[in-house]
Structure formats: C-alpha cells, structure tokens
Write a structure and sequence with these properties.
With 94 residues, the protein is mostly helical. The chain is built from four helices and no strands. Helix 3 packs across helix 4.
Length: 94
C-alpha cells in the first residue's frame, strides 16, 4: 500500500507539473520559476490596463474622474501599457 501511494504521488506531481507548463505556454502572464519581480509587476499592470480598456464603463469613469474625453483616457491607458513600471532594472552579469 505504501508503494502505491508513493507512485500516485509521483504521478500526481508529474501531472501537476505538465498542467502548469501547459498553462504557462498558453498564457504569458502566468509566470515561471525565472520570472523577476519587475517582469511580474509589468504583467500585472498590463493586464490591469487591458481590463480597463475592455470595460467601457470603467474607462468612462476614469475619463470623468480625470476630466478628459473617453478617447484620451483610452489613449492614456494604451500609452501606459508600453512601460507601465518604468525602464527595466539593470541586470547583474554572473
């Protein structure tokens, strides 16, 4: 019985890892083991701006709150998607 439970755990682990790899290959923002804090933050910000642009009522709210037109608010969100967290940090060479 113990050997069967160990085998099941190993097969479950393989299944979970293969499912995670499939998810990561399908969706860019799901991350991976080598993802930096900066890359994670950029993905989060871009996803948020894409969500704002897709929800017209949210974008209208932003436009009214900022005193801008709907088109200008949409353009502003699209511009912020280019470098949402500023330039990337300098990487250390190992």
């Amino acid at each position: 019985p113990e050997s069967m439970s160990a085998e099941l755990r190993a097969s479950d682990r393989f299944s979970i890892n293969s499912q995670l790899e499939h998810l990561q290959s399908k969706h860019v923002g799901t991350g991976h083991a080598d993802l930096t804090k900066y890359e994670w933050a950029v993905n989060q910000h871009r996803d948020s701006f894409a969500s704002y642009i897709g929800r017209h009522s949210m974008l209208h709210y932003f436009a009214v709150a900022e005193g801008e037109s709907y088109g200008r608010a949409k353009f502003s969100c699209m511009q912020k998607m280019i470098l949402p967290c500023g330039p990337p940090p300098v990487r250390k060479e190992e």
